[in-house]
Amino acid sequence: MSTVTLAGTSVELDDDGFLLDARQWNEQIAEEIARANGIEELTDRHWQVVNFMRKSYLETGSAPSIRTLGKASGVPIKELYELLPKGPAKLAAKIGGIPKPRGCI
Amino acid sequence: MSDAIEKVSIIISKGSLEGIYPGLIMANGARMEGIEANVFFTFFGLDAINSAKHDHVKVATVGNPGLHLATWAGGVPGVSALVTHQLAREMEKLDIPPIPEFVEMIADSGAGLYACKASVDLFKLSSEDFIPQVEDIITVGEFYALAGGGQIIFT
Question: Which residues of A are catalytic?
């Protein structure tokens, strides 16, 4: 666990860089996390995935599987990996300020 | 992080449901972590990419002590289909896709799917028997070349 300043706000991160408190999140923080993970600019398509992840987590208490992400976010699996090559579900969760997905699928 | 795994090549050699899923889950899981992945289907594992068979893969109910079912009971007609059906229902609850959808998902994730040439020759198959996502039919030597620089997982 560590405390860092992102977009002028002090936030707490876990060891893998995920926000510990989803309520501390805002869009500027998302952009800064994205840049730190090799995504220079969040496009509308990125936002569609990130917002879907965040909304699902806040509504259900868990992040969706990659299967659900591909079916229900409006962004198909192929494009998910183009947008977020280092792991779509994991990165979208990190950028969206929610915990690391625990599912195996 | 210097010893983090960056590439895996997974061999799927069995044709039962419980023989195919672990390799698919490992391959999908690798891609989800941003790890490069290849999947090599050999022997009865080819059923997972065979368009006529991949929707009809069953749990082995005979000679499978993990099921804790008497061998004679496992051999009763319909038992394998019943157990497969029950397992598929439970897997759907966990958002684990059926084999055809799962293999397609893995291909879409950027993993390479390959069929083993020796098995393809043995079973008198050709590329037309496989789903279009299969990139090539390759030899063992070509598989090792593809696997270079990564880990090999045999299932």
Answer: 104
Q: pLDDT digit string (tens) for B4-53?
A: 999 999 999 999 999 999 999 999 999 999 999 999 999 999 999 999 99
Tell me the count of A-B CB pairs closer than 8 A. Answer: 46
Strand partners, A5: A10
Average pLDDT per 10 consecutive residues for chain A, totaling 105 residues? 87 92 93 94 96 95 92 95 95 95 86
- Domain contains A105: no
Whether A86 and B34 lie within 8 Å, measured CB to CB: yes
Structural domain for B37, as ranges: 7-56+99-154
- CATH code of the domain containing B124: 3.40.1260.10
Is residue B104 situated within a structural domain? yes
* Interface-testing mutation among B7, B94, B95, with chain A (most A C-beta atoms within 10 A): B95
CATH no. for residue A28? Answer: 1.10.10.370
Q: Is A67 close to B108, i.e. CB distance below 8 A? A: no
Measure the N-to-C terminal CA separation of chain A; round to a whole number of Å: 26
CB-based contact (8 Å) between A70 and chain B?
A: yes
Beta strands in chain B (DSSP E): 7-12, 36-41, 112-116, 134-138, 151-154
pLDDT at position B2: 64
Q: pTM of the predicted model, to two decimals?
A: 0.93
Residue A31 lies in a domain: yes
Of B113, B120, B116, B112, residue with least CA distance to B140: B116
Q: Which two tokens stand for residue B96?
A: 């684990």
Find the residue in A nearest to B31 (Cα): A87
Domain extent at residue A15: 2-95
Looking at residue B3, its pLDDT comes to 85
